[in-house]
Amino acid sequence: MRISQKLDYASRAVVHLAKKHDGQSVTSADDIVESEGIPSSFLAQILHELKRTGVVTSRRGKTGGWKLIEPPADISLLRIVEALEPEALGQIPEPTGESGVAVKNLWESVRESSRQILAQNTLETLAAEDEPMFYI
């Protein structure tokens, strides 16, 4: 699996939106840039692509910003990968040679395991992992 800078930034941006999600409020791009350290021009491109694929929506104007279309519990990281870079899960070549089928089967297992892990991790779970723990 290849994780590009774009995919890393997108994942961080949507987890940030998940942390702020209340179903109503929007989060400014500047807030995401400041909190996540993502270059603003790159973030704008990523957010527009996520909007086109139905993951986020935006509101224009002085009080504008971005928010998730669905609750964070309903959006898996697999959805983000498939929306932005489906090729990141890898293309498996046709088997050749005596060992080709065995090797191809291994790569397919690796790809399927990756898909399962990404599908099991929602934006809600990722946002919760980042919350500080308080002990009394």
Radius of gyration: 18 Å
Taking the alpha carbons of the first and last residues, their distance comes to 41 Å
The count of helical stretches stands at: 6
Structural class: mainly alpha
The residue ranges in which pLDDT falls below 50 over 5 or more consecutive positions are none
Lateral strand order in the biggest sheet? 1-2
The overall pLDDT, averaged over residues, is 92
As a percent range, the share of strand residues is 5-15%
Major sheet details: 2 strands, antiparallel
Summarize the structure.
The chain is mainly alpha-helical and 136 residues long. The mean pLDDT is 92.
Question: What this model shows, in words?
Answer:
- With 136 residues, the protein is mostly helical.
- It has 6 helices and 2 strands; from the N terminus they run αααββααα.
- The protein has helices at 5-20, 29-36, 40-52, 77-84, 100-120, 123-129, and strands at residues 56-59, 65-68.
- Strands 1-2 form a two-stranded antiparallel sheet.
- A hairpin with a 5-residue loop joins strand 1 and strand 2.
- Helix 1 packs across helix 3, helix 1 packs across helix 4 and helix 4 (77-84) packs across helix 5 (100-120).
- The longest helix is centred in the last third of the chain and has 21 residues, at 100-120.
- The radius of gyration is 18 Å and the shape is elongated.
- The chain starts with a helix and ends in a 7-residue tail after the last helix.
- The mean pLDDT is 92.
